[in-house]
Amino acid sequence: MEMVSRREVQWQQPRQDVSNRATNGSMSVNAVTDTAGEESLTAAASDLLSALGEDLYREGLLRTPQRMAKALTYLTSGSTMTMKDVLNGAIFTERYDQMVLVKDIEFYSLCEHHVLPFYGTAHIAYLPAGKVVGLSKLPRLLDMYARRLQVQERLTQQVAEALQEALNPRGVAVMVEASHFCMMMRGVEKQNSKTVTSALLGEFRDDPALRNEFLSTVRMGYGA
Ligand SMILES: [Zn+2]
After folding, report:
1. Catalytic (active site) residue 180
2. Separation between Cα atoms, residue 157 and residue 142, nearest integer Å
3. Which of 143, 135, 2, 160 is nearest to 81 (CA)?
4. Catalytic residue (choose from 10, 66, 152, 157)
5. CA-to-CA distance for 144 and 92, rounded, in angstroms?
């Protein structure tokens, strides 16, 4: 219950992107987000750092638990958002019935097995059936599912299914290409591998020509 109320409070605040924070260093982000839930996260972060053998009183770590709490709150903030929050009435009636593709959308997520980042690009396409969605909503939809503890396979599928549900289009295609810190910094330590996942719904699944159109348009500009 506490987690829910923390997140509700968090999301009533105006959103600030990283560049705003950087340029408006005096903005009191701390005052905005210090909530009961963040206090318990801060305490947990202190425990974690102590368990790692760190000295919580050395200068560089004095406010680290608070920073960790804020960062983790933000990085998981998508889990309490809904499609309604994201799409917010930006669905319009249009006769356009060819593929709409927004490609190379960057995203950052957290793997739920190690709570380490995975990041990369997503390509999101759909075939309208009378309705289109504001283009900026596709990256927002991606962020909603990326900002939570995730696995890449589920992220891919959730974005596709959400778009299918919201627009009821003739088809949806989503491809995600990502690098996983849990494979880069630890484990097999492979820095250059990429994991590619895709979800194809409706006509993209059934029609090889459409699938190829999606793939070749995604690859356009890569020299492939
Ligand atoms: Zn992992």
Report:
1. yes
2. 11
3. 143
4. 152
5. 21
Residue 68, H or E segment: helix 64-75
Global pTM reads: 0.82
Structure tokens at 148: 């939570």
106 has catalytic annotation: no
**pLDDT digits over 109-152, tens only?**
999 999 999 999 999 999 999 999 999 999 999 999 999 999 99
CA of 154 from ligand 1 middle (Å) equals: 13
What per-residue confidence (pLDDT) applies to 188?
A: 87
Residue 90 in tokens: 């930006």
Q: What percent of the chain has pLDDT over 70?
A: 83
123 is an active site residue: no
Taking the domains of the chain in order of start, what are their residue ranges?
Answer: 2-75, 83-219
**How far is the C-alpha of 195 from the C-alpha of 192, rounded, in Å?**
10
CATH tag, 83-219: 3.30.1130.10
**C-alpha 84 to ligand 1 mean position (Å):** 30
Band of residue 196 on the pLDDT scale cut at 50, 70, 90: very high
Nearest Cα to 72, choosing from 31, 104, 106, 43?
Answer: 43
DSSP string, 148-211: SEE-HHHHHHHHHHHHHHHH--SEEEEEEEEEEHHHHTSTT--SS--EEEEEEEEHHHH-HHHH
CB 186 within 8 A of CB 112: no
